[in-house]
Amino acid sequence: RRAARNLALALLPLAALWYLKGYPLPTQEMEFRRLERQRLAERSEIIFRCESQGEAMLGDPNMLLGVTDTAVHTSSDSHTLRVWPRDADGPTLVTLPSELELQPVFTVGLAVVDAPEGTAAARLTLTLSVNDWEEDYTAEGARQGAVWLFPLPARHTEDDLRALERHALSDLTHQDANTFLFPYTVEFLDAEGALLDTLTYLGWDRE
Description:
207 residues; 4-stranded antiparallel sheet
C-alpha cells in the first residue's frame, strides 16, 4: 500500500505537466491526428517530415506536413497545428513551424506542394522586412519526395542587422495563411531551364 502511494505521489507531477501541455499523445503522429480532430480538420496524408535543431532541443525533432484535397497541415512538438488552404489549380507555399538549424547558421524553411509536372529546379525570392529594414533573399529549392524544400539561412554578421534579420526569419516560423507578411515569388523551371510557372504573393502591410 505504501509503495502504491509513493508511486502515485511520484506520478502526480508528471500528470500535472501532461495537463499543462494539453494532454499530448505519446507519438508525434498521434498528436498530429489529435490536433486535426481538435481543429475539426480533415485527416491529412503526411507526405513530408524533416528535422529541426530547435525541436530536437525540446524533444521530438521532426516537423510534419500533411495534405488533404483542400488544405496543407503543418505541425511540430512545440507549435500547434496550422492549416493552410491548398490551391486547387497550382502550387502552394507554406512555412515550416520551427527552425531547420540553429547552428552554425540560423536557418528556417519553406515548402511547396504541387509543383508543376516536369519541375527540375525551383527558386524562391522573398522580401524580409522589420520596421525600416527590408532586404530580398533567394533560396534554391531541393526536391524532398512530394515537396520542394527551401532552406533560408541568415547571412548577416553585424549585430544590428543580424538582430533584425533574426527577427524576420523567426517571424516566418510563426506565419500562417492569415498572417503571412512577406511578399514572395517562386519560379519553377524544367530541365532545360525554361520557366514552367510562377507562384507570386504580394504580401500585406503590417499596419
